[in-house]
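W.,

You were right to be curious about this one. When I first looked at the sequence I had no strong expectations either way, so I just let the prediction run and decided to look at it fresh. Below is the sequence, 600 residues in total, followed by the output.
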Amino acid sequence: MEDVSRIRNFCIIAHIDHGKTTLSDRLLEKTQTVERRNMQDQLLDSMDIERERGITIKSHPVSMHYSHPTKGNFLLNLNDTPGHVDFSYEVSRSLVACEGALLLIDASQGVEAQTVANANLAMAQGLVIIPVLNKIDLPSANVEGVLTQLEDILAIPREEAILASAKAGIGIDEILNAIIDRIPPPQKQEITQTRALIFDSVFDSYKGVICHVRVFSGTLEAGDGVLLMRAEQAAVIHEVGCFSPKMQVLKNLSQGCIGYVVTNVKNVSEIKIGDTITKASDPAKEMLAGYKDVKPMVFCGIYPIDTSDYERLKSSLARLQLNDASLVYQPETSIALGFGFRCGFLGLLHMDIIQERIRREYDLDIISTYPSVVYKVKLTDGSWVQIDNPLHLPDQSSIDEIYEPMMTAKIHIPNDSIGDMLALVSERRGICSNTETLDSSRVILTCELPMNETLIDFNDRLKSITRGYGSMDYELGEYRKSDLVKLDILVNGESVDAFSSIVHRSKATSLGREICEKLKNILPKQLFKIAIQAAIGSNIVARETLGALRKDVTAKCYGGDITRKRKLLEKQKEGKKRMKQIGKVSIPQDAFLKILKASE
């Protein structure tokens, strides 16, 4: 059993790409948790997709032993957290399991959007914050300027900052000593019964559900009968242990420790992130404060390309949901695409990552529909409905008002990009409510934007305008009344539900024209002309015509009277007319793929 006074639980928080994972690599090296021959870059990023993109998606706990120069041996439990705004839910869960946080700031980039957001999360949780200026060895590092930003923006004294370079190994000893000196040990709990918080979980095909836990009081060991309090589920512990960084079996997990628990629960839906584990023989009366339920912001339909893969997709989503509690989904059907699921995500990167994981980890070919947000619709009879799928939007005649979600965005950009950025915000129907100068080269714009307008390529445009130096953090704002309409795409007079979307009236015509043009180039020709139309209700706002495949019926006429040729052409025309009345256009699967891929 560990002495609680010799345990330190901390996490690393920062903006994306400021060096969190590199710092965790150096800490693992310095504490000799991983032998040098087994060391590799991004050691805690276990997924291929994390390594390829150079981003952290999942929080990764790891236990390290370190000997302080004067105070002796300590157990350090580290959580490496994601930096992107879409994964702030992962960060909030990691913070609950810790007493302190290393706030990492890139000395060349300075304080950015997620630096502020994550620091505020940690302060709200009451954590001790140790600011670390990383990458001080770069030629572009502006240490003095960043220290000033630290005081001005985050109100943290510059004297508290540690200067370091994770890549070069500078300042690693100072960081480890500061963790022990500044971060308090886990507090003694008044409640004596065993209580452990499940802050994460993963699915293992051999062991089943593996819960990542922080023990707040009591102990957990193999063979204990336990109770999952929120799920009201009894279970038996098969194995407990810690991460170093691979799973290492221990005799028990005591108060203050972070580790894993394997139980006999095999059904992924029975484990809830934020649940409390307590002993069945002496259960606690109160649960630990868990998490507020996450609200998805972006929705899209995910369908298997091969309809026989529906059950595999269903089980894949169930397992992914266990690894990622912020994913929500429910079954839906589409006339064009068959059976699939309506999935909710925290943002576009989150959506992209989940789709990529389904393709790679479960070897499934999938197609996704246009992303959309949740709208609130007031009907003429005074009732309200919430719509996350354009197909469920009531008829225009029964709608009184439509409200769309707004978001408040804090956009950090260089001074010379202000004009272009304001033009982009204006183009997306947003307004800039405040401009704040950080220093001589950077400003923060506070903008209000409709969330729907930021779904497709807003972040890409932001990065290109600022040449990669811009960053954005956002939070969901209020719902606001807006002139929104449902845009339908008709092929040969039949509506194609997969292409339906809810858009602002001012943008409906241009979007409709764009989709019609794409479809004209993608759809295979039939033996008759096909009208491709974009419609708002019964009003057609754009049209393209796909020409017919024609047999050359006059090829057999060698000379002779023109009336002979005309007669053959008229006969062909009659046939095409009759064919158009009874003909049906079946859109091939690859046409959906091309259109929806292009729109992404």
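Here's what jumped out at me. The first strand starts at residue 7 and ends at 14. And, maybe more interesting for your project: The chain has 13 helices and 30 strands.

Coffee later to discuss?

I.
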